[in-house]
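Q: Entry one of two.
A:
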Amino acid sequence: MKFGKVAAPERIDFEMKTPPAEVQKEQQAAGKAPIYIGATGWSMKEWVGKWYAPGTKTVGFLKEYGRLFNTIELNTTHYRIPTLEQVEKWCEQVPDDFRFCPKIPQRISHAKNMGLGTGLIAQTTEAFDRFGIKMGCCFVQLPPYFGADRLELLRLFLEAWPKSLPLAVEFRHESWFADESVINRWHELLTAHQTTAVITDVAGRRDVLHMRVTTNKTMVRWVGNGLIESDYERLSDWVEVLSYWKLAETYIFPHQPDNVQAPEAAAWLAERLQETDWADTRGPKVYVEPPPDQLALF
């Protein structure tokens, strides 16, 4: 993830200076708060033998991924709309508690009209509907040049997006965070359309760490810096924030350079959350060879 990348992250002040947003009781989980932790892809040969079972072939990567994580930031849908058969195949390979978070195609998010007046939104939502109970939250990543002056276009897009598919929006242009009045305008818009505001925690752009909650769920795109000391401090801060919110659903995606160390960050976070009495989550475990079948010894 190049957005917000800096050459010397150890010099960044990562303190969460903006206090957590107030969360209404109806937005909080009734019991334990479900937290979904995932990476940005499963095609990682570097994980074979440590996180994936030794000898795992490419065709088995998604099944192994689903054993480790309970969600994924599905970037492949950003580049092409999947077929219905492809979505069904993905769903068959992961357990029932797994949730996909597909990124909306760039043909929509990066188009001047956001797909309005075309068949792209309908094609995308038809495919995404096939995730069924394994749908987590779709998200649209607005390009860096999409500024707050296009708020009306975003409103029209949100009106066109079916309410049956949960949606989140990630803002990147600096104008969305220019002052509190601008933030309040998009906060009100997203709240009115039951749309989640993606929170991005990255070194070079601390303004995108807006800490706004607009629905009963949140999506956090957290970007680490190679497991340096501040990575663990920041993840610990998120445990505290999430304990305050206790939302009905939380999706958090720990990024690391080249995705290789993402399981380490995810595992550390999951372990901290599992030590609490309020979080319901699971995370990666280093692969351990199962014991031999006792009957095979005779």
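Q: Entry two of two.
A:
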Amino acid sequence: MYQPPLDAAYSQATEEELHTRIRAAKRALGSRIVILGHHYQRDDIIQYADYRGDSYKLCKDAQRHPEADAIVFCGVHFMAESADILSADRQTVILPNLSAGCSMADMANIHQVERVWEELGQVTDVSRIIPITYMNSAADLKAFVGAHQGAVCTSSNARKVIEWALDRGDKLLFFPDQHLGRNTACRMGFDVERDMLVWDPKQTLGGNSPAKIQDSTVLLWKGHCSVHGRFTLEQVTLSRKVHPNIHVVVHPECTKDVVDAADSFGSTEFIIRAVEAGEPGSKWAIGTEINLVHRLAAENPDKFIMCLDPITCPCSTMYRIHPSFLCYVLEKLVQGTTVNRIDVPDDIKRHAITALERMIAITEQLQSALAV
């Protein structure tokens, strides 16, 4: 989405001025707002967050505040859409910078997905294919899977959602991140060559033969995360050479060779819990976004913590949430004006919430089983 340039009152304000004004606006708004900060945000945004977490956790956190008139989501566009879908009708969701998107989410759009579905119908029975979209996708893709008996997944519940899908169909179409789908399916015993294929939406039949499509169980969309795609097997090897006994933990959006070489892998929340539970003096090489790695290092001074990639790897679109934009939306709310509202149309919301509610039910079932 297009973000109009801010006027000089914001674009030319000093950092000190902006922070003073943000604090004043937040005090004035009080319980009328709740501010959500994704783990990948810079520290000068995170300091104002009432909650910090991954996209799904933050949506759930927002639901704890039905009294809030506005939810200010310091994240990216698809996250704010999910918050709007799951929040009360009377609540407004605001994205401080409308240009904060996600390169992975942009790798699959509704026109491509609908065309792929038509192509699949030419060579196999689509009634037996269950579509799964990663949380990192647009609302209309969540609506698509909701309308086609599918569900949303996160990096923490992908395995359970895939198991749920294959109880209901013979195949699954997993988008937009191929690596999360591949890494999860491999841990479930599926073979990359025998059971999986990569679907390139820019090619006829995704670049596959009808026979390969018919023989495969896991159809992986050709998409990836630009941040997690930077981590390499060579970085894992080097970190262990330079720092003996270091524990390598990576996100499942990394490539399969990196995940296979790591000591452990999991969602952002998994990585945080693993580091926090580590012994004092333990060493950690982390394969995820640099702002989170730096924050973990600052909050765990008794451990050695480094980013697996020696070159800074911020999420560039997340970085667009600058204090000037947060100040802008908060001061407008103080003045009684809502800007940068994210409003998912009702026809999309209806099916998207079905897909999200399926995921929530699957997740709650998993949590109940673990608690036994």
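A: Comment on entry two: The longest helix spans residues 346-371. The mean pLDDT is 95.
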